Amino acid sequence: MPDNAFNVIATRHGTEAQRAELADRIIRNAPQPGVHACAVPDLALIRADEPSQPLACVYHPSLCVVVQGRKQAMLGEDLYHYDPLHYLVVSMSVPVTGQVIEASPERPYLCLRIDIDTQAVAELVTQLAASPPPAQENGRALYLARTDASLLDAILRLVRLLDAPDEAPVLAPLVLREIHYRVLSGELGARLQALCHVDGAAHRIARAIELLKAHYTEPLRIEQIAAAAHMSPSTLHQRFKVATAMTPLQFQKQLRLQEARRLMLMEGVEAAAAAHRVGYESPSQFSREYRRLFGAPPRREVQAALQNGAAMA
Prior knowledge:
Number of strands: 10
Pfam family, one: HTH_18
Shape: globular
Domain HTH araC/xylS-type: 206-304
Distance between the termini: 48 Å
Order of helices and strands: HEEEEEEEEEHEHHHHHHHHHH
Protein name: AraC family transcriptional regulator N-terminal domain-containing protein
InterPro entries: Homeodomain-like_sf, HTH_AraC, Tscrpt_reg_HTH_AraC_N
Radius of gyration: 21 Å
Strand content: 15-25%
Structural class: alpha+beta
Keywords: Transcription, Transcription regulation
CATH topology of the largest domain: Jelly Rolls
Strand order of the largest sheet: 1-2-9-4-7-10
Largest sheet: 6 strands, antiparallel
Number of domains: 2
CATH architecture of the largest domain: Sandwich
């Protein structure tokens, strides 16, 4: 058998062993379904024991690595399937509809979410071989790439630190930096690098998103958002929709509705009060737009979510 065939077999067996160990460690640290914060900063473990209903939510800049099972995310009309062979990168905060599509009590859906440190990305970009930004920065804020053995190895070393609390404060930042490097130097790393080009469209759209997140309860005009992004209103509108599949004002509306749902689910706030707190003046408009996004009027949808134990899954 040729040497390269042996190498392929060894690599395959190695990644299978890595995933098996990752699955075991995630199950031990996330014994119940849900999102579990960890002692390691910027790392969360996610588990689901059955497929879920589609749920509108906001994805923040992060790296999502599935170890077992499958999930899909919809941004606009684009559908992203991520599984043990592919990881999902979220380069900007975006409202999406997520759904676990493969999970069971015997083989639960298991995923790691690592928050992207934009400062670490910027520092690493300066150390990578100089490369110009993409000729057309026209990609979505979500993208999928293939999970390779090097990235999987770094992620496994990070998860092992959950069982080494004395070592984690020293070693976790180093491993997280390596993970950022692996993503940046991967097949679609240029998409993430584009965020660091201050004159590029991706960086400017990210700036507009941060403005919307900070002032989502306020009435904003497209001219204000465009000025913050250093773009003309027409250019902002076009670029923003390319990255997020929605206009800036549609984006703001989704942020309002997401926060109103969180207030009702997690703090027990009544629908009318939640609507007012996120910037709605008309309760009927809030109810109508909430139903359009979540599939049912606020009170009914929240009651169903609480009964299903899926408030923030």
